[in-house]
Amino acid sequence: MKIIYIILQLLAITGFYLLGEELQTLFNIPLPGSIIGFILLFTALMLKIYPLEWIDSGAHFLLAFLSLYFIPATVGVVEYGELFSGKGILLIPLVMASTFLTMAAAGWVSQYTAEKSAKRKERS
Amino acid sequence: MAFNTTAAFFAALTVVVYLLTNFLYLRYRKTLLNPVLASTAILASILVLGNIPYDTYMLGGSWIGTLLGPAVVALAIPLYKQRELLFTNLIPIISGIATGVVVGMTSGILFTQLFRFSNELILTVLPKSLTTPVAMQVASNLGGIPSLAAVFVMVAGFTGYIIGPLLLKWLHIDSPIGRGIGLGTSAHGMGTAKAFEYGQQETSMSSVAMTLSAVLGALLGPVAAWLLLL
């Protein structure tokens, strides 16, 4: 029985995804269809239009293997041997440096803002 | 194209290699055994040694890749479950993530421009901090190379996973919000895996950061590309 629920819920998730894709092409939205589907589903859950129980186990099942789905894409690195044996190898330290800056900026700003708003609450 | 044996073989091979590396990773917990890194290395070696073109592999590989879209949609569920945490810390969370996304994209573009890389490569590096499925779609929408974008996403992920904790300590970012938002915004799912080792609050913060930075990044990507490549 559980299997049937999971399959039906996977179909529902795919439905939100296809709806997102459809809206993307229809209105030429500059967002990937999957993100539009994500926003639609999140909104539907928040507004209680779509109950969590009707999608929870399907999503859990799908997300359990999340890293599997991008392996075929990362295997594509075989196509770029030439790029990474030349000047392109520089792209790796550049990406690493940019990742450090991103982490420092995001972490510091959120920590600082949270401390400030906590202090403000204490005072009032 | 009807049912194709070659395609089925490569799809099955991908799943088997993934399950095997996943099993070994769970058993020995070595970073180098990370299922994505190890599976990619094994499959890439098979293709290179067997002289198999990537396009042939992708006959089956693309079957698995198709699941990316629905998986992104499914990320709405963990975010919905953490809505309380999200809404009580809305301002610190959003300002941290937004700053991170802007800094990440700007520095990505500036660094690669400094070394005179082509626009195609710059647009491929641009979404590196976003979760893979979104990064690939953003790269493809902007005119970058999706499969190469996935490679840079992995580089960002491993950077956050391995060196991130040292950086956070050095900068005295020691609150659950700071750590979680920092890891999730810069290193998506891999950062969230590291956040899991810190604790529950860091994990929730990091997955919120991963999801929101994906949405923000998808929205801001075209703007950043347009502004900086004018």
Strand-and-helix sequence of chain B, N→C? HHHHHHHHHHHHH
Low-pLDDT regions of chain A? none
Main beta sheet strand tally, sense and closure of chain B: none
Instruction: Provide the structure class of chain B.
Output: mainly alpha
Largest interface: A-B, 72 and 104 residues
The helix content of chain A, as a percent range, equals: over 70%
How many domain units of chain B?
2
Over all CA atoms, what is the radius of gyration of chain A? 21 Å
User: Major sheet of chain A, described briefly?
Assistant: none
Spatial gap, N to C terminus of chain B: 43 Å
How far apart lie the N and C ends of chain A? 54 Å
Shape of chain A: extended
Mean pLDDT of chain A: 90
The count of strands of chain A amounts to 0
Summarize the structure.
By secondary structure, chain A is mostly helical.
Topology, pairings included?
The complex is a heterodimer of chains A (124) and B (230).
Chain A (H helix, E strand, L loop, with lengths): L1 H26 L5 H14 L9 H9 L1 H4 L1 H4 L6 H5 L5 H33 L1
Helix pairs in contact in A: 1-2, 1-3
Chain B lengths: L4 H24 L6 H15 L4 H12 L2 H7 L1 H6 L1 H6 L1 H25 L4 H7 L6 H11 L3 H17 L1 H7 L5 H23 L1 H29 L2
Textual characterization of the structure:
The complex is a heterodimer of chains A (about 120) and B (about 230). Helices cover about 75% and strands about 0% of the residues of chain A. With about 120 residues, chain A is mainly α. Chain B is an all-alpha fold. Chain B folds into 2 domains: about 1-50, no CATH class; about 65-230, no CATH class. In chain B, helix 1 (about 5-30) crosses helix 3. Classes of the chains: A mainly alpha (about 120), B mainly alpha (about 230). Chains A and B meet through helix 1, helix 2, helix 3, helix 4 and helix 5 of A and helix 1, helix 2, helix 3, helix 4 and helix 5 of B.
